[in-house]
Design goal:
Strands 1-2 form a two-stranded antiparallel ribbon. The chain has helices at 10-28, 30-43, 45-62, 65-93, 119-125, 133-141, 153-161, 167-170; strands at residues 110-114, 148-152. With 171 residues, the protein is mostly helical. The chain contains eight helices and two strands; from the N terminus they run ααααβααβαα.
């Protein structure tokens, strides 16, 4: 009787058993393993990024169109999730989702305002990558510096058109 299973050499069998043992260890010690991996990635940031890039490129090069589409969807979802978390952290650090001037609380209307009206100068200086997410990431990385506040777009535009003072403050 001939078996359908391929015959493994001693070396291949040893590797297979080691992989299985490692998988069992990871399952039993999930949090410890995850923390060790986080520590390694932090200590070896460039190498971790390179490995991640290589893995992604292999998946795209060798995957079916469905697998590639699923990978890109997952990446897009992750980006949206991380950007939303960053935005939430920034707004929480500057008083939450509430306009400092009029009290507006609709998240879609709110943004971070430069109290000293120097936003254009800061963007041109290259402190951070333009506006939006790059700005929010810079605020977080810089420890949420002072000089910024939450304003709704009406108050932002009113402040701009009214010489740096929101019309709510002058009436």
């Amino acid at each position: 009787m001939v078996s359908d299973k391929p015959v493994l050499t001693d070396e291949e069998l040893k590797r297979k058993r080691n992989r299985e043992a490692a998988a069992r260890y990871r399952e039993r010690n999930r949090e410890k393993f995850n923390q060790r991996m986080r520590d390694w990635r932090e200590a070896n940031r460039d190498k971790a990024r390179e490995q991640s890039r290589d893995w992604r490129n292999r998946k795209i090069a060798n995957g079916t169109p469905e697998e590639v589409a699923a990978l890109r969807k997952a990446e897009s979802d992750k980006t949206k999730r991380l950007q939303a978390a960053c935005r939430d952290q920034v707004f929480a650090a500057y008083g939450g989702y509430k306009c400092n001037c009029c009290g507006e609380s609709e998240q879609l209307f709110l943004s971070i305002d430069h109290i000293d009206n120097n936003g254009a100068e800061e963007r041109r200086s290259g402190k951070y990558g333009g506006s939006g997410t790059g700005f929010y990431q810079w605020l977080r990385k810089s420890g949420f510096p002072s000089g910024y506040q939450v304003l709704c777009m009406n108050c932002q535009v009113g402040k701009h058109k009214n010489g740096g003072v929101c019309p709510h403050r002058t009436s």
